[in-house]
């Protein structure tokens, strides 16, 4: 099916299609599903040999989702959600991967993909009004539309440590974990980083290793997951009440099913505050940040809750000196809040040492381990890099994307991520990003924000087809206004108070700004709905 009745039409070339989708994670698969079901000719690519996206790569011990599985799952098909059984409250990586594989099979999506194939360049041909996509297999595909479903946290960050090449021990990245079991038994292991990945992996590595050293640059907040198996009864009840679960998700600004207080933390009296925080703590997980509605916008309220949480963390650590070192010193949630199982208790073990990089930094790697600036040496058999990602823009800028007049996205974004609605970029017609910078993405339940963005892209392509348009492009003026609005909103929040992957501050040389849309999912969805209702306000259709 040719996508539009007017404008550029596919040539007879077998490599021509309506839409190219990059990525086989939650976003890419759903996009491919929506488009192919409606008859579009789609070519899709992923550099991994299989589906799963982030859940394909992140196989480190303890990897699991920090959003409850009942909501961290597709809502687009009621049979799918009624039939699937989640074994645990927070699913672990193998279960999430199994779910994604099931979806790929159920909707027969694999046949549209070339796996093990990276996209190496995408160039907009202005005279033809089409994109030329070149892949690692040497193929060139001509397409009318081009969707980057490449994920927010998919380009690993590999910090350059002096002397790393000399190190003779084993090296692992949490974000590229081997498929076979890695054994740490009898080994001295160094873990670098204390973000979500390390917080999940370290307690399990500590159980195996002879000795584990955690190299911490910034202490993190973590809330217990209180993970547990889902009983048959609980799962059955959820399956029967899925409409209600999704309704609660849809009315929440963070995309998680919950109902919370309507006043701010600083307005609550002491007794009510204690009761609410105790309730939130016992419920556990990411929702601690939603225990009061003003925690990301009001520093005073945030401080009240941050201090309460720090006291809870302190109770979990036996040695007061270690506890001091593990105390976060920024507003809770400004860096992505972590969800843990026995993280802080891990530092009570005799075989675990916290190495505080604020006291002395890493001077270099040596053949045998790590030498610190103060001369201390740690002999290590293995090092685990849990050093995070070049988030939000890493995958979008990983290869050359060239729009009108040969302008590259890298050049356009040199000083920041200009975009319209987080889905489109002026100068790059018919190109879409799923959960790109400027959309709620990582501040919302990822699967739900993916579904909304994918539906928007699909509806837009359908709108063009039905109305005889060949092209859609964000107008520069609207793009500037949206970009300014995203920055303005971020400045009303705690998120800009600390360096993090949200701001780009974790990557040397990356422009620092706040990338996701922080105004809340509901507000964003309503904004996008209005744009569409106003006849795609801010877009040029031709
Ligand atoms: O990465 P991170 P992550 N020397 O960037 C440190 C999602 N996720 O992979 O904070 C020393 O959070 C760095 O230190 P600092 C989730 O959204 C979800 O853990 O920059 N240390 C930090 O401690 C999460 O937020 C799940 O000072 C260095 C750590 O490495 C996001 O992915 C599980 C360093 C990186 O932490 C990223 O999490 C896992 C250096 N040169 C991930 N460079 C769940 O669903 C970096 N660090 C639960």
Give the helix tally.
Answer: 15
Going by helix content, strand content and strand pairing, the class is alpha/beta
The coarse overall form would be globular
Low-confidence stretches: 1-12
- Major beta sheet summary: 8 strands, mixed
Mean pLDDT: 95
Give a quick precis of the structure.
The protein has 542 residues and is an alpha/beta fold. It is 30% helix and 17% strand. Its cofactor is FAD.
Verbal overview:
It holds the Pfam family FMO-like. Belongs to the FAD-binding monooxygenase family. Keywords: FAD, Flavoprotein, Monooxygenase, NADP, Oxidoreductase. The chain is of the alpha/beta class. The protein is built from 15 helices and 20 strands. The protein has helices at residues 26-37, 54-57, 78-83, 93-106, 196-208, 232-240, 242-250, 270-283, 299-315, 320-326, 343-346, 409-412, 446-466, 476-491, 521-533; strands at 16-22, 42-46, 113-115, 119-125, 130-135, 140-148, 170-173, 188-192, 211-216, 222-224, 338-340, 352-356, 362-365, 369-372, 377-379, 382-385, 400-402, 431-433, 472-474, 539-541. The strands form five sheets. Strands 1, 2, 3, 4, 5, 6, 17 and 18 form an eight-stranded mixed β-sheet that branches. Helix 1 (26-37) packs parallel to helix 13. It is globular and about 70 Å long. It starts with 15 loop residues before the first strand and ends with a strand. The site of 3-acetylpyridine adenine dinucleotide has 26 residues, from helix 5. 3-acetylpyridine adenine dinucleotide is lined by residues 65-66, 153, 159, 174, 192-198, 200, 215, 217-218, 336, 339, 357, 386-389, 442, 501, 506.
């Amino acid at each position: 099916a040719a996508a539009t009745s007017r404008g550029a039409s596919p040539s007879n070339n077998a490599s021509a299609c309506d839409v190219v989708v990059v990525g086989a994670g939650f976003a890419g698969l759903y996009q491919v599903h929506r488009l192919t079901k409606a008859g579009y000719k789609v070519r899709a690519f992923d550099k991994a040999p299989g589906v799963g996206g982030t859940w394909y790569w992140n196989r480190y011990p303890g990897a699991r989702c920090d959003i409850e599985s009942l909501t961290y799952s597709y809502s687009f098909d009621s049979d799918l959600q009624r039939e699937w059984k989640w074994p645990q409250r927070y699913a672990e990586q193998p279960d999430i991967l199994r779910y994604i594989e099931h979806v790929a099979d159920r909707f027969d999506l694999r046949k549209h993909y070339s796996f093990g194939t990276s996209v190496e360049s995408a160039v907009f041909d202005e005279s033809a009004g089409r994109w030329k996509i070149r892949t690692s297999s040497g193929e060139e595909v001509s397409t009318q539309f081009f969707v980057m479903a490449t994920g927010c946290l998919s380009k690993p960050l590999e910090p350059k440590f002096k002397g790393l090449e000399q190190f003779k021990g084993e090296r692992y990245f949490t974000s590229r974990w081997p498929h076979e079991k890695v054994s740490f038994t009898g080994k001295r292991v160094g873990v670098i980083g204390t973000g979500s990945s390390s917080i999940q992996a370290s307690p399990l590595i500590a159980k195996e290793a002879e000795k584990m050293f955690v190299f911490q640059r910034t202490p993190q907040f973590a809330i217990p997951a209180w993970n547990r198996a889902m009983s048959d009864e609980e799962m059955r009840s959820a399956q029967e009440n899925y409409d209600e679960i999704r309704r609660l998700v849809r009315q929440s600004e963070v995309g998680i099913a919950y109902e919370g207080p309507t006043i701010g933390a600083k307005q609550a009296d002491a007794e009510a505050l204690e009761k609410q925080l105790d309730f939130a703590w016992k419920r556990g997980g990411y929702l601690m940040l939603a225990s009061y509605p003003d925690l990301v916008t009001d520093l005073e309220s945030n401080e009240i809750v941050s201090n309460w949480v720090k006291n809870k963390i302190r109770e979990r650590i036996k040695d007061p000196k270690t506890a001091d070192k593990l105390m976060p010193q920024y507003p809770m949630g400004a860096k992505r809040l972590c969800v843990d199982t026995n993280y802080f208790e891990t530092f009570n073990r005799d075989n675990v040492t916290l190495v505080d990089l604020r006291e002395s930094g890493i001077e270099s790697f040596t053949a045998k381990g790590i030498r610190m600036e103060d001369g201390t040496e740690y002999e290590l058999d293995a090092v685990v890099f849990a050093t995070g990602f070049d988030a939000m823009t890493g995958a979008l800028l990983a290869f050359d994307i060239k729009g009108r007049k040969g302008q590259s996205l890298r050049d356009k974004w040199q000083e920041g991520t200009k975009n319209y609605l987080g889905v489109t970029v002026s100068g790059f017609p018919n190109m879409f990003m799923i959960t790109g910078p400027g959309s709620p993405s990582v501040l919302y339940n990822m699967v739900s924000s993916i579904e909304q963005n994918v539906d928007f892209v699909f509806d837009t392509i359908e709108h063009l087809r039905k109305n005889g348009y060949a092209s859609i492009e964000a107008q520069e003026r609207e793009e500037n206004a949206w970009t300014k609005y995203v920055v303005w909103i971020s400045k009303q929040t705690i998120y800009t108070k600390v360096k993090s992957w949200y701001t780009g501050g974790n990557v040397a040389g990356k422009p620092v700004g706040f990338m996701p849309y922080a105004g809340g999912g509901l507000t964003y969805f309503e904004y996008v709905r209005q744009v569409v209702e106003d006849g795609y306000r801010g877009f040029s259709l031709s």
